[in-house]
Amino acid sequence: MPIRKKTDKIVWLASYPKSGNTWFRAFLTALMNDGKVEINSLVTDGIFSDRRIFDFITELESRDLTDREVKMMIADVYRFLSNQADKLNIIKVHDAFETDDSGFNIIPEDATSCAVYIIRNPLDIVGSLANHSVCSMQEATDMLNDKEFSLAKQTGNLNRNAQFRQHVSDWSSHVNSWTQKPGFPVKVIRYEDMLSKPNETFSQVVEFMGIEATPKQINDAIHASSFEQLSRQEKEKGFAEKTRKSKKFFRTGKMGIWKEELSPAQISEIREKHQEVMRKFSYW
Amino acid sequence: MFRYWGFGLNILSQLEFPELLPKEFETADVTIELGTIPLKLDGDDIAERPFSSVGEKEYILNIKNVCKYYAGYGTKIIAEPEYGIDEKSIRLFLLGTIMAAILYQRGSLPLHAAAVIKNDKLIIFAGKSGAGKSTLTALLASKGYDIFTDDICVMHSGPAGKQGVYCTASYPMIKLWDDAINHLESSEYSRDYKIRPELPKYGQFFFENFSSNQLPIDKIFIIHPAGRSEKITVTKLTALESFKQLELQAYKNQLILSKKLRMVHFGLLSAITKEVPVFEIYRPAMGTNTKQLYEAIKNLL
After folding, report:
1. For chain A, N or C: smaller number of CB within 10 Å?
2. Is the domain of B159 the same as that of B232?
3. Do A156 and B65 touch (CB under 8 A)?
4. Do A60 and B97 touch (CB under 8 A)?
5. Are B87 and B176 part of one and the same domain?
């Protein structure tokens, strides 16, 4: 079994929603688990926005706090967790890398080892986002372009869902926040490279994370976490991370599907808005 | 100074608590005062956490921009509010985490639970916040049950000469979210008393029918809010399963540090699971309303 490096710091798996974060976590699970993956038991250590972790560490009921208050406390929660950890802590996050009302980063840089930022062609995200959120392609396009876009948004600045509100922002701002602002190393991997040259891409990121694994172990994990395998498991057993309304989480797993799904107007809208960042990451 | 009853204790307080039951007494069990509090506790065996310092008999909690609290030896609470903070916020956290610390220091077991009274016995609904305990309790009140407690139910061995486990209420107020009040469709519940200025959650007082007596338990339901099934499921647990599940329902159980206290809880929970039926309810993650929940369990009440 590959060795998870002993460190007291956190590795963030950051991404804009529907960019391959779950797939990557399934790969890591297979890698840590002798090539076996069960989609409802992924081995990574939860999501940054999990209310239960916050409530346990703070000894408070976050339902009695506002989102603003939570954001001012959450960095200390993860500082504490990283100090307590006796193994590599790998935590998923969809929040943009930003500050709380006092100007402090919500992601504690001093408790962080590094981040893996998974990026995907925004044109392909639209269809996935529409499926996940059960909305039209136009509504998903609007989300991608919306600076106020948040996941688990709750009325009145409250915290009543299982997850806290995650301010994602528009696609370009999200990418820029994670690739430009952090004071720790960030490895950017493209969803498209995970698909088209998996061995090279996954090997690089495994090395970056400080996980020791052989090429065979990586290859086995890639096959065990393929779209077909994950999709089959969802069909057989369901997937707890699927939203209540959407029909399935693992939809097509393809790249370039935007050519069939988006209208010319939607394509222009996204390209116009995100041209600079799309060019930077070879999506042009 | 104000004199109250709450959580089975006589409380002498410098702060006014409209939530607690006014009561005259000579000797206070717990005092509440305003003062200054050190940043951390001194001594061995102190667990340092991001916002707290936890010892077996002392506790400090610091809620940024709200208030710092000290709870010591099961008898003393000091609050050091942040400048400009409202009193409701100070009271809300004091009546939750801080009172739990006091109760643990006194050797009690505060269960995260609401309860109603049936034939002088308690039907208890335990579960994490968001499980729907308060709304179900309010619904049962509109069907004729008397509310015993909301959120915290204090468990202890029976009064002199009585076998088994008994419970004491926290205080005569139940907290309901704005949407729960809409759902209940009852004019009995109002939006007069917000529990924090920014929260659409409202205190409903029930001083008139309030019982500060120690009462025995008839049955316990543990509610889980996010089951995988599409229907509400209700299962009677074995004694061993009941023990394991109830242990998890201790309010803020991360404050329990001492082995001695764990042994006291072990005794209480063992006694409960021997004599009291415990049911586990899973509510589908897809969301069910409280009226459906009531329909699913009404024959068991």
Report:
1. N
2. yes
3. no
4. yes
5. no
